[in-house]
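<derive_structure_tokens>
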Amino acid sequence: MRRLVLPALLLASIAALARDEGSDRKPALPRAGSAGGTEEHLEVPPPPFSEGIFPCSGCHADLPVNRTRRPLTAMHDDIVLRHDEEHRWCLDCHDATDRDWLHLASGERVGFDESYRLCGQCHGEKLRDWRAGVHGRRTGSWNGPKRYLLCAHCHNPHQPRFRSLAPEPAPRRPERPPETIGGLP
């Protein structure tokens, strides 16, 4: 009986490898800093940085780390944190030692092109819907390569809620001569 089990397992393994080699699927890529885990790499356009603001280390490399929650006055004074501001501060998302990176709650660094991983820690349902193409914008093939917009392409990460829109008046009915109503002459 043992003589049959080993060859059968070997054949099953070879068949599985051959099936995977013919597949168009890309394997999940290991992510830097992850504990042996893998995270699927998603195709995204570059993050929507303001002109001249990246790389952050250009200014922050020599600045001391200040973890005090406060209004910013010297630089970035245009940023008003309205994203759980009672509990959050810049360095909860931005890496303190190298500002060219974000970081997850675990401390793992992630690039700005993977900011969806950071957002998804608190907004798991939105991340799930975003990956499925239900939330946000995704282009590409339904069963092939896809390209996603990052959360920051639609939401300001510091103030993610969309601003209220003033309602527009109802559309006016077009003026038409009486003889054309209903398609009758």
Summary: The first helix runs from residue 2 to 21. The helical segments are 2-21, 57-60, 115-122, 124-132, 151-154.
